[in-house]
Design a protein that fits this description.
Blueprint (H helix, E strand, L loop, with lengths): L3 E5 L4 H12 L4 E5 L7 H6 L7 E4 L2 E3 L2 H12 L7 H30 L1
Parallel strand pairs: 1-2
Antiparallel strand pairs: 1-3, 3-4
């Protein structure tokens, strides 16, 4: 299995989500930490929106955390579900976490760190 370049913003819940998914699916990634607000020309070629995370693949970059997580699941054959219903339950959980948990993640971290 090839090693994929994964550009992340350290501490970002979206980056953390992709790192966790890579580990859970045994997907090998080379992490490339970005500085907050990175808008370098080099990075904008990878992700024109300038956001993180971004995953570099042979077919091109993927630039949304949920898309990257689903790619890891589909390409590894792990954590995806075998039936259409099981696959929908995986999507349901990803969407639930994105809308109910992750928006509050930074508030928790900032309160904890002061």
């Amino acid at each position: 299995m090839p090693v994929h370049d994964l550009y992340i913003l350290p501490g970002s819940y979206k980056s953390l989500m992709t790192i966790m998914a890579a580990k859970a699916t045994d997907t090998k990634v080379q992490l490339h930490p970005l500085a907050f607000g990175n808008q370098s020309e080099e990075y904008l070629k990878i992700n024109p929106r300038g956001k993180s995370p971004s995953l570099i693949l042979a077919d091109g970059p993927l630039t949304e955390a949920s898309a990257i997580v689903r790619y890891f699941a589909k390409s590894s054959g792990k954590m995806l579900g075998e039936t259409p219903f099981e696959q929908a339950k995986v999507d349901e959980w990803i969407d639930h976490v994105n809308t109910e948990y992750f928006p509050h993640f930074n508030n928790f971290v900032y309160q904890y760190l002061g």
